[in-house]
Design goal:
The protein is α+β, with helices and mostly antiparallel strands and 363 residues long. It has 3 domains: 12-106; 111-208, Butyryl-CoA Dehydrogenase, subunit A, domain 2; 212-362, Up-down Bundle (Butyryl-CoA Dehydrogenase, subunit A, domain 3). It has helices at 12-25, 35-39, 58-70, 77-89, 95-106, 210-248, 260-287, 294-321, 332-343, 350-362; strands at 111-113, 126-131, 134-140, 152-159, 163-170, 179-183, 189-199, 205-208, 250-251, 254-255. The strands form 2 sheets. Strands 1, 2, 3, 4, 5, 6, 7 and 8 form an 8-stranded mixed β-sheet that branches. The protein has a two-stranded antiparallel sheet with strand order 9-10. A hairpin with a 2-residue loop joins strand 2 and strand 3 (134-140). Helix 6 runs antiparallel to helix 9. The longest helix is centred in the middle third of the chain and has 39 residues, at 210-248. The protein is globular and about 80 Å long.
Length: 363
Amino acid sequence: MSFEPSIAFAGMLSDSAARVAQDQAGRYPQRPDATLIGDMGWSGVLVPEAQGGVGGGFADLASIVEALARHAVDLPVITRCGIVPTVLSALPGCALASSLSNACAEGEAVIELAGPLSASEPVRPLAARLHGNAWRVSGATAEAALTGDCTHVLLVCEEEGRGPVLAAVPRAALAGQPVTAYRTMEDLPVQSHALDDWPLPPDTVLANGPQAQEALRAGWRVAVAAVAADTVACMGASLSRAIAYLLERKQFGQALAEFQALRHDAARLYIEYEIARNLLQASLRSLEAERPGPATDAALDLLGMHVGQQAVPFAETIIQLHGGMGMTREMPAARLAVRMLANAVRHGDPLAHRQRLHQMRTA
């Protein structure tokens, strides 16, 4: 009945990330320092070579995400190494975007996302209006992990009737603005700034209108795929730990793994894990298309819908199989379960993905 999940994105990046993850997991409850991302050179993985980066593909990002997820290590890799570089790379004619990409690859800048990538997310974009030659924005930014090394914040705004506005604002410029700090379901410290007719600093606007919309769509594709890869890795790792626990623990003189009802639960989880893992691999083929379009978006919406739907009952069953121990954060399986629950609503919940698929089909 033993089980060990296979590594979906094997390679040198995966090996090095796994060593880092094992080291950081062994230090729990001490939280990993976000500067590890820059120290390991991960921030340049998706940055094009022409801008000083590695010029890697999604599989390279996924190998890091997978390794960290398997050990329940929380680092803002998906936003800083995946979404932000993708958004900047989707703005080839913007000198500021190119400069920031190069700075990220060199470790001179750390940019955190503080806005929604699509209309399906619960947080609304900041309201933007053009006042003379300057932009003014109002509203609350999305929750963001603004760690000490963060130098810039990627704001997502919306000009009524004209589409999104993207701005990369130096973090120092937000000093003095009302801020709300709190912890997420995963016990991660995040912040949200409240802005009231706040003037965007000069030369911080990256793009607006259709160009900004396309950049956000590119970032959304990477976000959905990366969150799914994270969830699938959590599924495999938590199932492996649950089976090991059932084989070790005993009740009424026999191992828990001998009880048929628990064996049925483990078998069901294995089937769900294999379906999600194979759907992830199939969906990534469309992400690697030279020109992603509606078919790519549909494949990723299907992936996000299915993995998000399965994540919640999967996490609940993992906790149940561990009994009372499954409720303690000291157990890696419990942290993996909470991570799956949080991922289920990240960058669009299953209902939002389902609604978009319906709109595509009926359009």
